[in-house]
Write a structure and sequence with these properties.
single chain; about 150 residues; Glutaredoxin; alpha+beta; two-stranded antiparallel ribbon
């Protein structure tokens, strides 16, 4: 599995969001993007990570940074997740995992001591010109949003 590094061109994408609208990376030209990949809506770690990114949205916006979350879940799942926790983070659906794979955020990982195929919790800071500024792989959900914000 190829991993992206600083200086790599960010793979382009167009995915559906929680409301069924198409969202493309190119929609954010001229501003930086934090793109985070997570395994599933409404699970303990993913909820903690989403809530912490959500709590920091104002601080990211003040730095002209948009935050996007991506999981394999569909729009209905994302919408319910957002409603349940009062989230304002834009959540995108990647059911085919093609975008996750392009970012190195899907593949073999260890889960409870076993090798499995799955979503690798990963985050990318993408420049206003579509270049990876920073990549974090195998992140811990709790406290990660603060680490990303501190890196800005």
């Amino acid at each position: 599995m190829a991993r992206l590094e600083a200086g790599s061109k960010a793979p382009t994408f167009t995915l559906s969001d929680h409301a069924g609208r198409s969202v493309a990376l190119s929609d954010f030209r001229g501003q930086r993007v934090v793109l985070y990949f997570y395994p599933a809506d409404d699970t303990p770690g993913c909820t903690k990570e989403a809530c912490q990114f959500n709590d920091a949205l104002r601080a990211f916006a003040d730095l002209n940074v948009t935050v996007l979350g991506v999981s394999p879940d569909d729009a209905a799942s994302h919408d319910a997740f957002r409603q349940k926790y009062g989230l304002n983070v834009n959540l995108l659906s990647d059911p085919t995992k093609k975008v996750m794979t392009a970012y190195g955020a899907f593949g073999e990982k260890m889960l409870y001591g076993k090798k499995v195929q799955g979503v690798i919790r990963s985050t990318f800071l993408i420049s206003d010109k579509g270049v990876i500024e920073r990549a974090w792989y195998n992140v811990r959900a709790d406290g990660h949003a603060a680490k990303v914000l501190a890196a800005l």
